[in-house]
Specification:
heterodimer, A: 612 residues, mainly alpha, Cytochrome C Oxidase, Chain A, two-stranded antiparallel ribbon, 16 helices, 1% strand, globular, B: 290 residues, alpha+beta, Immunoglobulin-like, 2 domains, 6-stranded mixed sheet, 5-stranded mixed sheet, 7 helices, 38% helix, 19% strand, elongated
């Protein structure tokens, strides 16, 4: 602080802050914050119901719209998973599930959950709602484009859902859409289904680019006075880095979608070699199926971190607030997020060890993959070190965070199995993989989403969710989900391959029958348990107690809006001025156990603040 | 308090499950014991980290749950601790990576004495080709494939004429003799996978891929397709029988060569398995009857 202060003291004349402190140790300009470089944004206030709730330009409303649309797709994905588990646990019980249907469910479940649910929810939902509030801006920098972003996403979802109703049904090519089978007979939905999928993905990428530009530029350009990059909440860091990743990764998905559409419609051969089908040689030749896999995973692996990094960021903030302790090793956390983001572009082919690519790549990608484990492990250590010597509120939010740590560490460690090239050979394409990625990028981020819902619901709706219901919701979800995915790894050890509609009676597969029934039953319970949250929200909206301002005694700016819930423009007449990082909890000498980011040094001159 | 107890039980339960699980490796029947060993090593190291992290978390929940008026420690950073943890993690990761890479090096370097087997995949079935007396497989081309030439062998390639053709989903292997599996596909991605052999690789149309293993246990094993290949994927199965040299050679001598096939084809053109399979609409029942 003192160094920075000396550097800035030359600009003292420009300071618009008036200093009124007089107690000992307070120098006249210790509260100095550099003036704003840009004029304040003009906001377009809505004039009608439609402008306020439908074609709205307020990032908070757009965030809620993203959130609800993503949750809708998530519910569809959940129902599809139930149908799959019905077939796997109790084959033949539901006679309407044919092999074609099963593969369509698998495909749509995967694509929906990864792209339309998790990505849209974290970046579109939490990103829109929280970025302007947390960096102290009135709105996103391009509100109109932001609105278009949501509606493009909405259309993408509509096109995706429409594929359930076209002749042949949705594509059943697996969410990875590997050619050549994706566009050939023998795969369900190889006609209209796959086309709608590819169009929907293209629309998603276009819509996301509009949103992503907003997130990045808002964070880089519209932070309030005093909000340096290294004072941003980790939530913002996570979302920011994820957005940068998305901007670089999604184009690979877009071009591969376009190329495959051309292969399908115009008979080009980007991904299609010479193929013999039903005794006939097709009119393709010279293309490379593995090229598609490279493009897909060049998008697909960063995509994992596009989901994970916002979750990392959010959970860091939740843990810090509810453990009443500063996040341990903030700078390490920031650099770990950025480092993981950068490394995530150099590991994609660990999805392809047994794809038939040049096997010598295995050495490179196994090394990069295991290197990425180091910054990831550092983040885990820092979360638990934040709990250490804290003053931990064991409330619903914290339970979700603890559940995240357990599931994430579990899934991270199985990732070391799969990343370690030769260990991957026996396990790839088995249920070990299914269990691994559901644990690490399904359940773990879901734990964070749930924690975030309980944490920020008081801000969004102005009322506190019921704690008892929240705990029931947590324990059924956590214990249920853990008992789905933990034992599932062992099916992979047996050698049960994934994407099998039916197992038949291979000896090692029949030994898994009881386990499959158990997993399916748990899946039905966990899915149904989400109704507790729905009930909780309805109950809270009717009879819940008012949250008031800053019910969790947090430090970050979103809790210091002019009204709760925040109105359009967020902060009333004056934007907040930031004097410190958001993690000053239990600072020695402070009266309260938290110091908001807006607390000026002169107000708390008697404290021993280390990091500002 | 109950939260800490439940998390503790989850961790204990996970460890007990791992120790007493009835679901674990299907017995290995190849030389890739090293893969299993690396997995066991990763289980020890990774499992240790998992248990340690979670127990520490549970300890914090017990020891530091909220008390009104208690001060949490205020210590934003601890450079020394962070440095120790970074290096310890790096070492642990390197210790796991090293055996993984060593075994991968063995996996991509095929022994010179390995028998080359051409595994041809299509939607949805397998067939196999072994080199004849010259010890070399003839070259092939997808466009050559027809009723008379189900493997698409180039007729004018002298190495191909004595190739031994196995037009069946089932193949026999000689015990303790390394084999190099050469994979090709005529339509979409497939993957020739026998859980007991641990090894696998995708078959990719347009290129030939490979991997190798050495079966070391006499017996019959099921072949599974391990890369999603359309609606018949789950039913795309075959079999391997690992035999002693005497039995294997007896079996081998009963197989047809390409030359013999050309001669026989003139008599029995309808008996072509590939053509039959290509027109087959695969359902569970039909598959079982086969």
């Amino acid at each position: 602080m003192s160094e920075e202060y000396e550097n800035k003291s030359g600009y003292q004349a420009q300071s618009s802050e008036t200093i009124s402190g007089s107690s000992s140790g307070i120098t006249p300009d210790m509260d100095y914050v550099r003036p704003a470089e840009n004029a304040e944004q003009d906001l377009y206030h809505p004039h009608s119901f439609i402008e306020k709730w439908v074609f709205c330009q307020d990032a908070k409303v757009i965030g809620v719209q993203y959130f609800l649309t993503a949750v809708f797709t998530g519910v569809v994905g959940l129902i599809l998973s139930w149908l799959m588990r019905l077939q796997l646990g109790f084959p033949g019980l539901a006679g309407f599930i044919t092999a074609e249907h099963y593969y369509q469910f698998v495909t749509m479940h995967g694509m929906i959950m990864v792209v339309y649910f998790l990505t849209a929810l974290f970046l579109g939902g939490f990103g829109n709602y929280l970025i302007p509030l947390m960096v102290g801006a009135r709105d996103m920098v391009f509100p109109y484009v932001n609105m278009l972003s949501f509606w493009m996403f909405f259309v993408a979802v509509a096109v995706l859902m429409a594929s359930f109703f076209v002749p042949g049904g949705p594509t059943g090519a697996g969410w990875t859409l590997y050619p050549p089978q994706t566009i050939l007979e023998g795969t369900p939905g190889h006609g209209y289904g796959i086309l709608l999928m590819l169009i929907s993905l293209a629309l998603f990428v276009i819509g996301f680019t509009m949103g992503g530009l907003n997130y990045m530029i808002t964070i880089l350009q519209a932070r309030t006075r005093g909000m340096t990059l290294m004072r941003m909440p980790l939530t913002v860091w996570g979302i920011f880095t994820a957005t940068v990743l998305a901007m670089l990764a999604f184009p690979a998905l877009l071009v591969s979608s376009i190329m495959m559409t051309l292969d399908k419609l115009l008979g080009t051969s980007f991904f299609m070699p010479t193929i013999l089908k039903a005794g006939e040689v097709l009119e393709y030749g010279g293309g490379s199926p593995i090229l598609f896999q490279h493009l897909f995973w060049f998008f697909g692996h960063p995509e994992v971190y596009i989901v994970a990094l916002p979750a990392f960021g959010i959970v860091s903030d939740l843990i810090s607030v509810h453990a009443r302790k500063n996040i341990f090793g903030y700078r390490m956390m920031v650099w770990a997020i950025v480092g993981i983001g950068a490394l995530s572009f150099f590991v994609w082919a660990h999805h392809m060890y047994v794809s038939g690519m040049n096997p010598w790549f295995g050495f490179f990608f196994a090394s990069t993959t295991l290197i990425i484990a180091v910054p990831t492990a550092m983040k885990v250590y820092n979360w638990i070190l934040t709990l250490w010597r804290g003053n931990i509120r064991i409330n619903t939010v914290m339970l979700w965070c603890l559940g995240f740590i357990v599931t994430f560490v579990n899934g991270g460690i199985t990732g070391i199995f799969l990343g370690n090239v030769s260990v991957d050979v026996p396990l790839s394409d088995t249920y070990f993989v299914v269990a691994h990625f559901h644990m690490v990028m399904g359940i773990a981020p879901l734990m964070v989403i749930m924690g975030a819902i309980y944490h920020w619901f008081p801000l969004v709706a102005g009322k506190m969710l019921n704690e008892n219901l929240g705990k029931w919701h947590f324990w059924t979800t956590f214990l249920g989900a853990y008992s789905i995915y933990f034992p599932m790894h062992y099916l992979g050890f047996i050698g049960v391959p994934r994407r099998y509609y039916e197992m038949y009676d291979s000896p090692y597969m029949t030994s898994g029958v009881g386990l499959n029934e158990f997993i399916s039953t748990a899946a039905f319970i966990v899915g149904a348990a989400q109704l507790i949250l729905v009930f909780n929200i309805i109950k809270t909206m009717k009879t819940g107690k008012k949250a008031g301002q800053n019910p969790w005694k947090a430090n970050s700016l979103e809790w210091f809006t002019s009204t709760v819930p925040p109105e359009h423009g967020n902060f009333g007449d004056r934007l907040p001025v930031v004097h410190r990082w958001p993690y000053d909890f239990n600072v020695p000498g402070a009266e309260e156990d938290y110091l908001p980011q807006t607390a000026a040094p002169s107000e708390v001159a008697h404290t021993e603040v280390e990091k500002t | 308090m109950h939260a800490g107890i439940i998390f503790l039980l989850v961790i204990i339960g996970s460890v007990l499950f791992h120790i007493f699980t009835p679901w674990y490796w299907t017995d290995i029947a190849s030389n890739w014991q090293g893969m299993d060993d690396t997995i066991t090593l990763t289980f020890w190291v990774g499992g240790g980290v998992f248990v340690a992290v979670c127990l520490f978390m549970v300890y914090c929940v017990f020891r530091y749950s909220y008390k009104e008026g208690r001060k949490a420690e205020y210590k934003p950073e601890d450079k020394k601790l962070e440095k120790i943890l970074t290096w310890a993690t790096t070492l642990g990761v390197a210790a796991l990576l090293a055996p993984g890479l060593i075994i991968w090096n063995q996996y991509v370097n095929v022994p010179k004495n390995a028998l080359e087997i051409d595994v041809m995949a299509w939607q949805w079935g397998w067939q196999y080709r072994l080199p004849g007396e010259d010890g070399k497989l003839g070259t092939t081309k997808v466009t050559n494939i027809n009723d008379e030439n189900p493997f698409g062998i180039n007729i004018d390639d002298p190495f191909g004429r004595d190739d031994i053709l196995v037009q069946s989903d089932y193949i026999n292997l000689e015990n303790n003799k390394p084999v190099k599996i050469l994979l090709r596909s005529v339509d979409v991605l497939h993957n020739w996978y026998v859980p007991q052999f641990r090894s696998k690789m995708d078959a990719v149309p347009g290129i030939v891929t490979f991997y190798w293993f050495e079966p070391n246990k006499v017996g019959e094993y099921e072949v599974l397709c391990a890369e999603y290949c359309g609606v018949g994927h789950y039913a795309m199965r075959g079999g391997v029988e690992v035999q002693n040299p005497e039995d294997y050679n007896k079996w081998l001598s009963e197989q047809e060569t390409f030359d013999e096939l050309i001669a026989n084809n003139k008599l029995e053109i309808n008996n072509n398995k590939l053509a039959k399979n290509n027109n087959l609409i695969l359902t569970k029942d039909i598959y079982k009857e086969e």
